[in-house]
Model the fold of this input.
Amino acid sequence: MTTKFVIDTNVAIVASGRDTHGSEKCQDTCKELLGQCKKLHIVIDNIGLILDEYANKLNPSGKPTIGDAFFKYLKNYQYSSDKIQLVAITPVNDEQRGFEELPENQLDKSDRKFLATAFVAQAIIVNATDSDWLEQKVLLEKLQIEVKQLCSEHSCKQCI
Done:
């Protein structure tokens, strides 16, 4: 079975080195992962919520950083690459869920699209600096979703 990945926006932001609190080591790790993006099986939602968030934080024109180039790759090849999978997720007007595919949860609303996408595709979520994922360990276990933490020093607000 092919390993599939849903890439949290913070990975591309950290790789870009803009507006990030990611350490230099964290930035290098994110750059390395995104440098392999054409070899990875990446999953995004079919209604464009993930790409919309990337568009708000990244810039695919001009002289793009590696994070910007990652976004441009997904945007340009989402319908033609066999390495990019689009999955259907269903937003619902329910403040406790956000998406039909999810149970009630306390996850940050901006992260729910990543979780719903990962759940439908049975993909691994890749994270760099967002502590919300570690804080939702019970929910992730319930949904059998793994989070690959690229930068463990940034995974928890209350870690030493």
Observations:
- Residues 14 and 21 are 8 Å apart (CA to CA).
